[in-house]
């Protein structure tokens, strides 16, 4: 009997198995996480420099060149950082207060259809009111300082938290709810073991929407009632035509918002480690 060649042996044994690629969530490398935002920042700075310094398409009274803004910050970094600290404290405190109240209100609305029908229209109406119109009223009622600023933060960012909490708690997957019933779980056990964990990703969506709104609320409050903070600094600098200082404060507001937002994203990843393992961005 003649010996079969290797291709003939493979053919006789059947087709070789085709390796199946592993399917799972794509992980971004640490290098990409750092370099891509940095590249976007450099592109934005380049466009800013091109429009203001090279093409001179924008008047310096509207948007000064990057060098002028950097010089304004370098002239008094301590002053900027002090005001940034005040705005950060107001943003975080107002966000925490609105988060606590928003989650509690969302729990109440999700637990009672009667309460939802009674108060949801009122919450929608309160959310629709332009908050800047309430500034003078808050000053008249609460005076100057942090109280009206914190109230403005609360009014701006509590509604997304209420909505996401109520939506998350009323959209529990049917298979999980059926599993809890089949195990004769009490209402509290079903809430603690099934409904709340299933709702946490949706709740964090509302929190991440509300975080930038908290920074906006703090700045609006400082515009109208603040005695310190970056919003107060913008008003003072704008009043004397110092647009470089005003833009330096605006950039610090943006940086503060980015840091707070990604701190919340990190908290979500630490609190909900299973979400990234059970979902995929495709």
Automatic annotation (TrEMBL):
Could you list the residue ranges that cross the membrane? 31-51, 92-110, 122-143, 149-169, 203-225, 245-267
SUPFAM superfamilies the record matches: MetI-like
Does this entry carry the keyword GTP-binding? no
**Segments for region (Disordered):** 1-23
Q: Can the keyword Membrane be found in this entry's annotation?
A: yes
What PANTHER family would the database entry show? ABC TRANSPORTER PERMEASE PROTEIN HI_0355-RELATED, ALKANE SULFONATE ABC TRANSPORTER-RELATED, MEMBRANE SUBUNIT
Q: Where is the composition biased (Polar residues)?
A: 1-11
Q: Which InterPro entries match?
A: MetI-like, MetI-like_sf
**Domain ABC transmembrane type-1 spans what residues?**
84-268
Q: Which domain of life is it from?
A: Bacteria
Q: What is this entry's stated membrane topology?
A: Multi-pass membrane protein
By what name is this protein known?
A: ABC transporter permease
Compartmental location: Cell membrane
Please provide the record's keywords in A-Z order. Answer: Cell membrane, Membrane, Transmembrane, Transmembrane helix, Transport
Matching entries from Gene3D superfamilies are given as:
MetI-like (1.10.3720.10)
Q: Which Pfam family, giving just one, matches this sequence?
A: BPD_transp_1
Hey, which family's this protein in? Belongs to the binding-protein-dependent transport system permease family.
What's the source species for this entry? Streptomyces shaanxiensis
């Amino acid at each position: 009997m003649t010996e079969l060649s290797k291709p003939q042996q493979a053919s006789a044994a059947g087709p070789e198995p085709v390796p199946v690629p592993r399917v799972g969530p794509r992980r971004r490398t640490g290098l990409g996480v750092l370099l891509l935002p940095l590249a976007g920042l450099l592109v934005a700075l380049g466009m800013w420099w091109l429009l203001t310094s090279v093409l001179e398409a924008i008047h310096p009274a509207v948007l000064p060149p990057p060098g002028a803004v950097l010089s304004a910050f370098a002239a008094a970094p301590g002053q900027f950082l002090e005001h940034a600290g005040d705005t950060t404290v107001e943003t975080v405190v107002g966000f925490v207060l609105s988060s606590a109240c928003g989650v509690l209100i969302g729990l109440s609305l999700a637990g009672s259809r009667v309460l939802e029908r009674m108060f949801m229209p009122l919450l929608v109406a309160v959310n629709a009111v332009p908050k800047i119109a309430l500034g003078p009223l808050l000053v008249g009622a609460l005076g100057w300082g942090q109280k009206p600023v914190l109230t403005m933060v609360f009014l701006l960012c509590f509604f997304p938290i209420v909505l996401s909490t109520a939506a998350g708690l009323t959209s529990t997957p049917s298979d999980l709810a059926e599993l809890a019933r089949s195990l004769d779980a009490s209402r509290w056990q079903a809430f603690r073991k099934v409904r709340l964990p299933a709702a946490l990703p949706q709740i964090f969506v509302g929190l991440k929407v509300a975080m930038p709104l908290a920074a906006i609320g703090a700045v609006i409050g400082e515009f109208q009632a603040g005695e310190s903070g970056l919003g107060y600094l913008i008003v003072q600098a704008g009043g004397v035509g110092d647009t470089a200082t005003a833009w330096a404060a605006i950039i610090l507001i943006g940086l503060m918002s980015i840091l707070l937002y990604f701190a919340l994203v990190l908290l979500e990843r630490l609190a909900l480690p299973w979400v990234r393992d059970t979902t995929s961005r495709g």
